[in-house]
């Protein structure tokens, strides 16, 4: 049942039907009880009236013996002979009876109400005993006729209600359609819009119940518009960044083809190799950003061994011919973090690449641990020129390349690292070291630290030979 209107109609129809059936049952029970109470009162009054007539000698008991019938009753058509009366002597002799009354004794009960079955008919009987005159008056109702009377009364009450049901169903359907009209207007508005129209819906005259839907749609439109704008800028920046290395590749290829000097040709080919590396890295970084933002996969909560991952990356990443040393503190191998390994590897790869690109030849990149309040900081420090203070707030922006830019950089590394860490519930901290160089910190909240166990018996990869022992890098933030 996909239609809200149909679902509401069914729900209201069933609810109304249950209420109606409950009302019918209540009317039936209450009306039946009331009618039976009235009929019992009539029986009692009839019995007492006959007894008073006997006492006042308006009915002569002596003369009544043998008369047929002594006092016939006249009742409305269809209910004739409903009320029957018998007068018995206390010795068990029938003195008189009304027309249609059975010859058998209506009840053996001496006084008050009783119920008797005579010839298959059930009778409701009221008895009045007059000991002074030696008689007993029995007045009875045939319950079959009484039930028919009750049913006719109830039928007369319920028949108009049955005739109202179709009109009630029509009113319910009309009310539902009117109530859903604001949703229909919103649907027509949205279906008539072009895909490029992300303007907010008018919520001035919106019903209070529909307002949250309109506000949510307007919020969605705003987010989509913002995302579209970011993608537009991102595409423009990416096209610009790719155009530069591609133009350089074409130029160097033309130089290599046109030159007959082996030295010039070799230098052009080396420049082509550097340009291909830079372009490949840029494309990989663009794909990384797209994958994180699109949420193409679900991220796990680890656990991740930061030390093992950093050692593996230290062996995988090229050092650009700088003979660099990458040292990983033993404490990092003992640490376990509730973070997706791919997200940590993506952030750490970009931070290490950034450190490699800015480190001088023969320099050391130290990976260690520090504390910043309750957060555990995984620190990556290089010995490069650092970042000018006025650019620290900008270096995480995409395609931003500051004054101390590296020749092979694209301005995406720190942005990717921050995006991956935010996805994992962590954050990226940056500051310049006192002795020069950049200190990049992965701030891991205490809730994601799963303790410090023993180092892995079989690390992911062996550390590079003759690496100096790393030291803890203090990270003091304002």
Automatic annotation (TrEMBL):
Give the top-level enzyme category: transferase
Coiled-coil positions: none
Membrane-traversing stretches: 6-29, 153-176
Entry keyword set: ATP-binding, Kinase, Membrane, Nucleotide-binding, Phosphoprotein, Transferase, Transmembrane, Transmembrane helix, Two-component regulatory system
Q: Where is this region: Disordered?
A: 454-478
Query: Which PROSITE patterns does its entry note?
Result: HIS_KIN (PS50109)
Q: Where is the Histidine kinase domain?
A: 237-448
For this protein, the record's CDD domains field holds: HATPase, HisKA
Q: Where in the cell is it found?
A: Membrane
Primary residence: membrane
SMART domains recorded: HATPase_c (SM00387), HisKA (SM00388)
- PANTHER family in UniProt: SENSOR HISTIDINE KINASE YKOH, SENSOR PROTEIN QSEC
* Protein's name according to its UniProt entry: histidine kinase
């Amino acid at each position: 049942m996909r239609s809200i209107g149909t679902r509401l109609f069914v729900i209201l129809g069933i609810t109304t039907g249950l209420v109606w059936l409950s009302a019918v049952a209540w009317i039936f029970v209450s009306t039946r009880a009331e009618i039976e109470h009235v009929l019992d009162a009539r029986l009692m009054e009839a019995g007492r009236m006959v007894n008073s007539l006997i006492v006042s000698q308006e009915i002569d008991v002596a003369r009544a013996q043998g008369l047929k019938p002594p006092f016939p009753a006249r009742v409305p058509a269809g209910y004739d002979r409903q009320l029957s009366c018998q007068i018995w002597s206390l010795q068990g002799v029938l003195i008189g009876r009304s027309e249609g009354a059975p010859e058998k004794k209506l009840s053996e009960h001496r006084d008050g109400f009783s119920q008797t079955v005579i010839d298959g008919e059930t009778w409701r009987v009221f008895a009045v005993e007059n000991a002074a005159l030696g008689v007993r008056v029995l007045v009875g109702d045939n319950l079959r006729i009484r039930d028919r009377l009750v049913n006719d009364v109830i039928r007369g009450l319920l028949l108009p209600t049955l005739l109202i049901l179709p009109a009630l169903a029509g009113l319910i359907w009309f009310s539902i359609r009117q109530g859903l009209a604001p949703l229909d207007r919103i649907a027509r508005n949205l279906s008539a819009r072009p895909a490029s129209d992300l303007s907010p819906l008018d919520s001035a005259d919106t019903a209070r119940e529909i307002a949250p839907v309109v506000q949510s749609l307007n919020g969605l439109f705003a987010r989509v518009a913002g995302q579209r704008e970011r993608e537009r800028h991102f595409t423009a920046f990416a096209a610009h960044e790719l155009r530069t290395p591609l133009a350089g590749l074409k130029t160097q290829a033309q130089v290599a083809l046109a030159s007959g000097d082996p030295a010039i040709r070799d230098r052009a080919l080396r420049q082509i190799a550097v340009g291909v590396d830079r372009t490949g890295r840029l494309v990989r970084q663009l794909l990384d950003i797209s994958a994180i933002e699109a949420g193409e996969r679900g991220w796990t909560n680890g656990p991740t061994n930061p030390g093992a991952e950093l050692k593996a990356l230290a062996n995988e990443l090229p050092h650009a011919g700088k003979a660099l040393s990458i040292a990983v503190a033993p404490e990092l191998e003992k640490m376990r973090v509730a973070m997706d390994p791919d997200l940590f590897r993506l952030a750490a790869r970009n931070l290490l690449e950034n450190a490699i690109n800015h480190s001088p030849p023969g320099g050391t990149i130290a990976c260690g641990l520090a504390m910043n309040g309750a957060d555990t900081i995984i620190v990556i420090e290089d010995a490069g020129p650092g970042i000018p203070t006025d650019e620290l707030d900008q270096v995480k922006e995409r395609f931003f390349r500051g004054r101390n830019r590296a020749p092979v950089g694209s301005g995406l590394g720190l942005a990717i690292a921050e995006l991956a860490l935010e996805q994992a519930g962590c954050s990226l901290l940056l500051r310049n070291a006192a002795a020069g160089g950049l200190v990049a910190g992965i701030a891991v909240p205490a809730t994601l630290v799963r303790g410090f166990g023993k180092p892995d018996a079989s690390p992911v990869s062996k550390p590079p030979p003759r690496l100096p022992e790393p030291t803890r890098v203090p990270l003091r933030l304002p």
